Amino acid sequence: MNATKILDAKGLACPMPIVKTKKMIEELQSGDILEIHATDKGAKNDLAAWVKSTGHELLESSEDNGLFKFWIKKG
């Protein structure tokens, strides 16, 4: 998936992945895709809830050896 920007949130604990995601997504245009890399297990639930409450779209998420990746389309 082609992301407009990539956010490296590895090593950050809650709530920092959400804080950084919010800040970076504000820089994007509607329809752009933000790819997020995180190691905090809570990021999966946190980002899913945040996306629902903000009108963005979680296109895909994956986990590989403790690395969580998310693709969010800006609403």
From TrEMBL:
PROSITE patterns registered for this protein in UniProt: UPF0033
Superkingdom of source: Bacteria
GO MF, one annotated term: transferase activity
Domain UPF0033: 7-31
Keywords recorded for this protein, A-Z: Transferase
Gene3D superfamilies noted in UniProt: TusA-like domain
Record-stated family: Belongs to the sulfur carrier protein TusA family.
Protein name per UniProt: Sulfurtransferase TusA family protein
Organism: Chengkuizengella marina
